[in-house]
């Protein structure tokens, strides 16, 4: 990947140094540059641009599902070939854990070891303070101060006496710049260039901007606020979030009344035997935090902040990918049968009333257990439902166009709860066959954590890729 980034840098340098006159004989020849192709991101497949009939082609009176099919087109994007697994999400959890410990090791309250936080360059000039990830955490034989810093992130169970991470402290702070709002003509900083939606001429009307911010109070609690204030600068489009990123392992108990699911609560995320299972108990907000962290991780490693970000798929992208671009496909496979002639199921769902295990699984299954669709994507039906970026309303189709459609609503804390619904797709291990259809739309509140909802990431394609590398 680093070679690829260096290659892009050279290409940009070559473009910037290209002659704009003289050798081209005064003709319009364009600015020269080097051809390049985007390599396949690890664990992702390329979904090429295309169009299809999105939504249900026929109404279903039994389930009360109306016909809402319409033709839409989507651009090319990369998509994770499986849901994000427990193992992959643990990498996020461990990064947050280690970043907090490094902050505390550099804190004067714990001895103030400056080696864990860089504030000056080699010449002694001040730089933006940042953690030194090259400095290893002294897990073995720490000093007294170092031991206090490390132990401060753990808790002792008052009943069992076992030591474990204090999940309540695993908070991830990140900033998101709202490019869409910043680009709107009504939000231009220069009033002479500002045009409101109902005007055809510039307007001097005061523009109010909704800005999200967050902080940790004196009791260690996250305080999230939505501030509405007059537009003043580009920073008004920069939103700050603090999200506790640990999955809600209690979802296994709270989602099912009068069921003995304690083993899943204790082991599903913690035990290595479930490493390759899809992560669950993750809210829409946590999934977005993961996408931001994954983007920052890649950009830092590659030394390039212009890499397209990881994000949740739009509802249209998800359905197009699940159906492999086919209008006639109700499921990620051909036909409406849920099992092959030999009796093998195509997905992990609930085949019969009370019989979860007929398909070979009781709850979720290891990712990639069932065959992929024609795009090379696994578990696009069943296993776990998946978050999308798209906000849900009963009339969502009326709010979106037919090119890269996506309806987004950044719900403020004070908004009614019904405005905090996000679309989930694919159905899960607990759903019957009708709800694992590729054209079935469902929703969940963005802050809810369920034992049957996970996610996968996408990235918009840049350049001209040449298929998938294994």
> How are strands sequenced across the largest beta sheet?
15-14-13-16
Assembly form of the protein: single chain
Proportion of beta-strand residues:
15-25%
The count of strands amounts to 17
- Main β-sheet: number of strands, strand sense, barrel status? 4 strands, mixed
Radius of gyration: 25 Å
* Overall pLDDT score: 88
Helix and strand content put the structural class at alpha+beta
Overall shape: it is globular
* Range of helix content: 10-25%
Annotation field: number of helices: 8
Q: Report the span from N to C terminus.
A: 15 Å
Low-pLDDT windows of residues: 1-20, 465-470
Order of helices and strands: HEEEEHEEHEEEHEEEHHHHEEEEE
What are its keywords?
disordered C terminus, three-stranded antiparallel β-sheet, alpha+beta, about 475 residues, 17 strands, single chain
Account of the protein in words:
This protein is of the alpha+beta class and 470 residues long. Among the domains are: 1-36; 171-244, no CATH class. Helices cover 18% and strands 19% of the residues. It contains eight helices and 17 strands. It has helices at 2-16, 86-105, 144-151, 179-183, 251-254, 262-267, 284-302, 315-322, and strands at 44-47, 50-54, 70-74, 77-80, 117-120, 126-131, 154-156, 163-165, 171-177, 208-216, 222-230, 238-244, 385-391, 421-425, 442-445, 453-454, 458-460. The strands form seven sheets. The protein has a four-stranded mixed sheet. It has a three-stranded antiparallel sheet with strand order 1-4-17, with no helix packed on it. Strand 7 and strand 8 (163-165) form a beta hairpin. 31% of the residues are buried. Residues 1-20 and 465-470 have low confidence and may be disordered.
């Amino acid at each position: 990947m680093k070679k690829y980034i260096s290659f892009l840098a050279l290409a940009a340098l070559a473009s910037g140094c290209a002659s704009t006159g003289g050798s081209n004989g005064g003709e319009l020849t364009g600015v020269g540059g080097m051809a390049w192709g985007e390599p396949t991101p690890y664990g992702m497949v390329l979904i090429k641009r295309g169009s299809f009939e999105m939504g249900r082609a026929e109404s279903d009176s039994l389930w009360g599902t109306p016909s809402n099919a319409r033709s839409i087109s989507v651009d090319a994007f990369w998509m994770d070939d499986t849901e994000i697994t427990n193992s992959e999400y643990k990498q996020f959890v461990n990064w947050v854990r280690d970043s907090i410990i490094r902050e505390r090791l550099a804190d004067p309250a714990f001895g103030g070891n400056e080696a864990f936080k860089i504030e000056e360059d080699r010449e002694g000039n001040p730089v933006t303070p940042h953690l030194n990830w090259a400095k290893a955490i002294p897990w073995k034989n720490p000093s007294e101060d170092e031991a206090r810093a490390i132990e401060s992130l753990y808790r002792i169970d008052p009943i069992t006496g076992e030591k474990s991470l204090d999940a309540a402290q695993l908070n991830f702070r990140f900033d998101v710049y709202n490019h869409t709002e910043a680009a709107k003509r009504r939000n231009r900083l220069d009033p002479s260039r500002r045009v409101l939606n109902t005007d055809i001429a510039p307007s001097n009307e005061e523009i109010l901007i909704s800005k999200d911010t967050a902080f940790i109070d004196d009791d260690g609690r996250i305080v999230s606020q939505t501030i509405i204030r007059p537009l003043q600068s580009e920073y008004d489009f920069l939103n700050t979030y603090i999200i506790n990123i640990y999955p809600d392992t209690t979802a296994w108990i709270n989602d099912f009344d009068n069921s003995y699911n304690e083993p899943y609560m204790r082991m599903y995320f913690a035990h290595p035997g479930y490493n390759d299972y899809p992560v669950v108990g993750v809210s829409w907000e946590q999934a977005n935090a993961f996408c931001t962290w994954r983007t920052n991780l890649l950009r830092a490693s590659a030394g390039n902040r212009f890499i397209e970000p990881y994000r949740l798929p739009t509802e249209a992208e998800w359905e197009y990918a699940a159906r492999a671009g086919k209008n006639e496909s109700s499921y990620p496979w051909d036909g409406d049968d849920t099992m092959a002639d030999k009796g093998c199921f195509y997905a992990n769902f609930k085949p019969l009333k009370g019989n979860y295990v007929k398909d070979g699984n009781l709850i979720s299954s290891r990712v990639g257990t069932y065959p992929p669709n024609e795009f090379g994507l696994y578990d696009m039906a069943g296993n776990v439902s998946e978050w999308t970026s798209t906000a849900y309303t009963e009339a969502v189709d009326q709010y979106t166009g037919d090119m890269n459609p996506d309806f987004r609503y950044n719900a403020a804390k004070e908004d009614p709860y019904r405005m905090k619904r996000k679309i989930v797709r694919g159905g899960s291990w607990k759903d019957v066959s009708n709800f694992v259809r590729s054209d079935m739309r469902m929703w969940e509140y963005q802050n809810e954590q369920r034992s049957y909802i996970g996610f996968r990431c996408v990235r918009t394609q840049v350049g001209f890729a040449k298929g998938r590398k294994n």
